[in-house]
Prior knowledge:
Largest sheet of chain A: 2 strands, antiparallel
CATH superfamily of the domain at 72-167 and 263-284 in chain A: Cytochrome c-like domain
Distance between the termini of chain B: 86 Å
Strand content of chain A: under 5%
Distance between the termini of chain A: 96 Å
Mean pLDDT of chain A: 91
Mean pLDDT of chain B: 87
Shape of chain A: elongated
CATH class of the domain at 72-167 and 263-284 in chain A: Mainly Alpha
Low-confidence stretches of chain B: 1-18
Low-confidence stretches of chain A: none
Oligomer: heterodimer
CATH topology of the domain at 72-167 and 263-284 in chain A: Cytochrome Bc1 Complex, Chain D, domain 2
Radius of gyration of chain A: 36 Å
Number of domains of chain B: 2
Number of strands of chain B: 16
Shape of chain B: elongated
Order of helices and strands of chain A: EEHHHHHHHHHHH
Structural class of chain B: alpha+beta
Strand order of the largest sheet of chain A: 1-2
Largest interface: A-B, 20 and 18 residues
Amino acid sequence: MADNKEVDQVSGTETTGHEWDGIKELNTPLPRWWLWSFYACCIWALAYWIVMPAWPLVSSYTTGVIGYSSRAQLAESVAAARAAQSSYLDRIESASLEQIAQDSELLNFSLAGGRSAFAVNCSQCHGSGAAGFKGFPNLNDDNWIWGGTLEAIGQTIHYGIRSDHDETRLSDMPAFGSDEILPREDINDVAEFVLSLSSSGSDAEAAGRGEVIFAEQCAACHMEDGTGNQELGAPNLSDAIWLYGGEKTDVVETIARSRAGMMPAWTDRLDETTIKQLTVYVHSLGGGE
Amino acid sequence: MVEQAVVQDATAKPGDGRESVDRSDAEPVNKKEVRSLYQKRIKIYPRMARGVFRRLKWIIMAATLAVYYITPWLRWDRGPNAPDQAVLIDFPGRRFYFFFIEIWPQEVYYVTGLLIIAAFGLFLVTSMAGRVWCGYTCPQTVWTDLFIAVERYCQGDRASRIRLDKAPWSANKIARKAATHISWLIIGAGTGGAWVFYFADAPTLAVDLVTFSAPTIAYITIAVMTFTTYLLGGFAREQVCTYMCPWPRIQGGLLDEESLVISYNEDRGEPRGARKKGTHPTALGDCVACNQCVAVCPMGIDIRDGQQLECITCALCIDACNTVMAKVGLPPNLIAYDTLANVERVREGAKPRLRLIRPRTVIYSGLIVLVGAIMLFTLITRSDLDVSILRDRNPLFVTLSDGSIRNGYTVKIINKQHAPRHFTLALEGLSGAAIDIVGADVTAEDILVGPDNLESFRVFVAAPRSALEGSSNDLRFLVIDQDSGTQVTYDSVFRGPE
């Protein structure tokens, strides 16, 4: 081969010997560094196939000699994160809600943990800022249907409201309209009276008639003055906060058809420390009693 | 290429009262015409120069190295709650201590200002006197100079180093080479060793380092800096300046014809040529073609070719040439610090002069003074109390059961004093507004912030609906130091329904 080596006169480069119509192809080899990098990559690839999971088989894959798996790595980092938090989590597990709220270190940890648990589990209904929507209570305000103490909040989170848990919080307001307990006019009068409790009514005469009906039909749960009863889950009707809206049509609809919002019980879904952190977090949002 | 040796002037007679002129057939390895971009590095064997500038360089080397090595060991008393190291970059504590100045992470603009001043300082010096930074104070120059000094101590000057490299391996050669490289590595380790002291308490870390209980990162840093110092000072040397450093490219835009640069007086020197001792043939210029300027050059250039990118203006060629000029009895400064404008002036028969005050230098000086004044002003007037207030965006506001409106805020108070302080939080601009702070032991009347610390508080402000005008109301927070009465205000907004 060496004897028929032909060198191009102009460029000084060896030719491959290929020729087309007098045009000769120059033989410009790949740069040495490129070639060696390529060989190194080949060797690397071979080593990788042996060491790491690489080839798909029919129903499995080659696992590699060190048995690496990204799933196992994830499990490891999750376990490591748990272990790193364990000193706090252990203390939270054994502490009462009041003790957590008093200990600024545990409080800060719980607020952070509660915030992320809230975002994952609660924000779908209560909103990411816990401001709620129509029918889903705003947890920032100072109005609580079932109580805003740490204990009460904890209980609500544990067992839910009208959930399928045996110890669920349960209130059952009659549908005065659809169950034909009250005629339409009476419902109108009661609505006027309820609105007048928060000084937003417009018909004082109707409200006067409604007061009598209210005392008969509603005061057992909502109290004479309409301030509600957290034991029974009867909302305060005299404040400025309306779960289902404060317009007259909203109030009439509530009386006529009743409302029955539902919150799941979290006791079987979340562990005890998470529920404690959630409780402390919700309590801290501004309305905690 | 390295066919170089020092030859004695053939006409020199021993003991004639005047020493002979050393002649060198040194080739400038970075001669511009013959250089390929893909050329391998040709080793440069700089000869030792003697003279004013060499002495100056020794002094500056000693001073800069002293500053570098001694600074972390200086102490500065800051009281009980702060470190007593004068210059300390405390990453875990997120502080930078510089004598009486203490910089928090959010005040990093002081560092920016310092860098701006440094940059303009460099621009100013460069426009007046060329690359003095490169020639005298750049760490690459200082350490390379130190490495060359070590090399010279172990292997002798230029000629013996060349001879040693060409000689076959022998016990002597191995011993000399080993001594050089071990010394370099020790210097490198010392360089990295000093560096880590800037980031931790130096005396503690020094003990930890020798007892092998220092953090791993300290050892890694020392190892990396040992290696880079060894590589850049021992081998890469002038390549760093020519190929790695952007500064030589930038400085072309900062120099003008009035900047001092190392220049060879071509009109006086050419045509160059060797001559008999004590004779000065009229056909020849003053350059005796001894090539000493090339032999001493650490950058491997021939200054007689004119201005070159590689020249770091270390001025060693001036020393070398002046030594030769003194020996042959010619006036000094054939190679000298001069401006290109002066070369032209002399050619036209005018008097040379130095124009240090030019629009360029005035602007640079002005900018330095301006940035310096701004920094000084902010430094003097900066408060040791900093407040930052972030209003909740979700929810924007909350309606309470009595109809009043509540907004949530995150109030951050930074106490930069080394003592705990009690603050009062007050409001302005919203009548009937009440403050409630989350937490068992905090009230608006007494907020405690620990020494040298940042504390964050959840603050609720509630105001009656009647106090609000529209959906957005201006609200001013006042944070008042209970002891000194110092007060910081922060303007925020109170949101309500439409």
